[in-house]
Design brief:
Elements: E1 2-5, H1 8-17, H2 30-35, E2 40-47, E3 54-63, E4 66-74, H3 87-99, E5 102-107, E6 112-117, H4 118-126, E7 140-141, H5 143-154, E8 158-159, E9 173-178, H6 184-190, H7 193-205, E10 208-213, H8 217-234, H9 241-252, E11 259-266, E12 269-279, E13 282-290, H10 299-313, E14 318-323, H11 335-342, E15 347-351, E16 355-358, H12 361-373
Parallel strand pairs: 4-5, 13-14
Antiparallel strand pairs: 1-2, 2-3, 3-4, 5-16, 6-7, 6-15, 8-16, 9-14, 9-15, 10-11, 11-12, 12-13
Helix pairs in contact: 7-10
Keywords: Acyltransferase, Cell shape, Cell wall biogenesis/degradation, Peptidoglycan synthesis, Transferase
Protein name: Peptidoglycan bridge formation protein FemAB
GO biological process, one term: regulation of cell shape
């Protein structure tokens, strides 16, 4: 297996060949390199012979005071045939990156380990003896996920995903709605009574949701104003509006459906706004914002339902509501997020998580200590 640099055009062309693959993440598109300007990026190709068999977008994070030494991060990737033998590909990837100065490689294979139905999650929250999602017997398990986990451990890779589900990287647990073969009525019937009632109320109150491909700077500014308001209310640090403009421009350069804005208005007031991302058969609810006033018109429910219907219309196989924590303890503040997402129907999904392969163990250990102290 040869791993070598490829052009952004070659990278994108390979992804376009896999356009129906719901496992290809937007974090592995060439556009994402243009969004993450604080990282040095490169597109790599995997060549078992003459034909390209996989790609990786690698983001290099420099070590403070050691600028040429980096953590080589492959978010939600690389893009490989994970059902096959990937050991040679990962070994070759590590060798290439070590030669370029990486002290460790971090990957996040988009491989499912297990899933749980909405009903199981609800029962788990109600059961005092259940503290975590993994205390429940999964509704499905994936042999490929279990096999890969075993192989990564045996090869010296170290799991980095935190126990509570959220950390500096990408979430190991997500909430997703399968769409393939389903109708709008199927999806609506799968929601809980509260969600259906709120969607109906939003419609009765006159909430209007507009879908915008890309969007103007004014559209993005409207989203961002509401997003900053949401950040102040919910106590998180918002990104600047320039970040979203760069994200829009980079993604739209690859496909006019890659980056979309959804704006929910009530009597002229913006009550909810979201960013929706699509790559092939996978769609994501990427960012969201909502007004504190007029919450009773249920703009957040209306805008989610609009995005789910858009994903179905676009032929997507998955609508991804992104990360959840695995905790099911009602006393944990994160349970509210799970309950909101569970109301949509769908399923909780566990992936194999993010893994590090230390290439220079002392620097890797020092880096972990530095990150833990921040």
């Amino acid at each position: 297996m040869i791993v070598r640099p490829i052009s952004a055009a070659e990278h994108l062309a390979y992804l376009d060949q896999r356009i129906g693959d719901a496992s290809v993440s937007f974090l592995q598109t060439p556009a994402w390199a243009r969004v993450k300007t604080e990282w040095r990026a490169e597109s790599l190709g995997f060549f078992p012979g003459e034909v390209l068999s996989g790609v990786a977008l690698v983001l290099h994070r420099p070590v403070p005071k050691l600028k040429k030494t980096t953590l080589a991060y492959v978010p939600e990737g690389p893009v490989l045939d994970w059902e096959g033998d990937t050991a040679d590909a990962l070994t070759s990837l590590a060798a290439y990156l070590k030669k370029g100065g990486a002290f460790a490689v971090r990957i996040g294979p988009p491989v499912v380990v297990a899933t749980w139905t909405a009903e199981q999650v609800k029962q788990g929250i109600a059961d005092e003896s259940i503290a975590r999602l993994t205390d429940l017997t999964p509704s499905t398990t994936n042999e490929a996920g279990a096999k890969l986990t075993t192989e990564l451990k045996a090869a010296g890779w170290q799991l980095q995903s935190p126990e509570d589900g959220f950390g500096a990287g990408q979430p190991q647990f997500t909430y997703e709605i399968p769409l393939a073969g389903r109708t709008e009525q199927d999806l609506l019937s799968g929601m809980n009574q509260l969600w259906r009632r709120n969607i109906k109320k939003a419609d009765k109150e006159g909430v209007v949701v507009t879908r915008v491909l890309g969007g103007t700077d004014d559209d993005l500014q409207a989203f961002h104003d509401l997003y900053v308001h949401t950040a102040e209310r919910d106590h998180f640090t918002p990104r600047g509006v320039t970040y979203f403009k760069v994200m829009r421009d980079a993604m739209q350069s690859e496909s006019n459906q890659r980056f979309q804005l959804f704006l929910a208005h009530h009597e002229g007031d913006l009550v909810a706004a979201t960013i929706y991302v699509q790559v092939g058969a996978h769609t994501w609810y990427s960012y969201g914002a909502s007004s504190t006033e007029k919450r009773d018109v249920r703009g957040s429910n209306a805008i989610q339902w609009a995005m789910i219907r858009a994903a179905l219309e676009d032929g997507a196989a998955v609508y991804d509501l992104r990360g959840i924590t695995p905790t099911l303890d009602p006393a944990d503040s994160h349970v509210g997020l799970i309950q909101f997402k569970v109301g949509t129907g769908g399923q909780a999904v566990q992936y194999v998580g993010e893994w590090d392969l230390p290439l220079r163990p002392l620097i890797h250990k020092a880096f972990q200590m530095y990150m833990g102290s921040r």
